[in-house]
Amino acid sequence: MNDTPTTWAHDFAAKHGLSLRYDTPLPHEVSGYKYDGPEGPVVVLDSALPPERQHFALAHEAAHIVLGHTDELDDNEEREANQLASELLLPHEEFSTEAWRTLHELKELFPHVSFEALARRRLAYIPGVLTVVDNGRVRYRLPSDDFSAPPRPTEPEWEIIRKAYDEASDQQLDMEGLRLTATYVATNPEMPRVLLFVEEG
Ligand SMILES: [Zn+2]
After folding, report:
1. C-alpha 45 to ligand 1 mean position (Å)
2. 166 Cα to the center of ligand 1, angstroms
3. What is the 3-state secondary structure (H, E, C) of 46-61?
4. How far is the centre of ligand 1, averaged over its atoms, from the C-alpha of 33 (Å)?
5. How far is the CA of 157 from the centre of ligand 1 (A)?
6. What is the pLDDT of residue 114?
7. In what order do the strands lie in the sheet with 40-46?
8. 92-200: CATH topology
9. pLDDT beyond 90 at 61
């Protein structure tokens, strides 16, 4: 249970004029929601979630407020809120000069954000395709704008993914003008994750 704000959540809420409350589980399996309290907006977070997930939920709710969204939300507004949440978690001024770093280096600089959120934000700065693999299975594959990639991982990509799992460590391979970087993450030991970037080398 994480039912007191982390330092990051406390500072973020203060900066955006939000009050924080904690509860678990939240209705409708959401990771956070907001309502208008007598003294301004209140964001409710799921205390059972890891801090990084709480932080994303907080930034997502703040994004709805910044964007002036009302309570009836459509998919497009949810996408906009996720996009802005990513920018609020990792502001351009702080992130842009660091985006080239490895995910482990980025995690040390921005410990309040998950590896996944760091990887997705990195795509906005460094063209490439990100593949997220859980327990050896592709969860999704996301190219940046203007980067063409086959819809599924290629055989060399699979080789480096397998090697990352076998050795439980990061791997890198340069081939045909491309750089393949696999980051091994065992935050959840039952579901080790590999985040693979393919970028121009
Ligand atoms: Zn939302």
Report:
1. 13
2. 38
3. ECCCCHHHHHHHHHHH
4. 8
5. 34
6. 95
7. 19-23, 40-46, 32-37
8. Beta-Lactamase (3.30.450)
9. yes
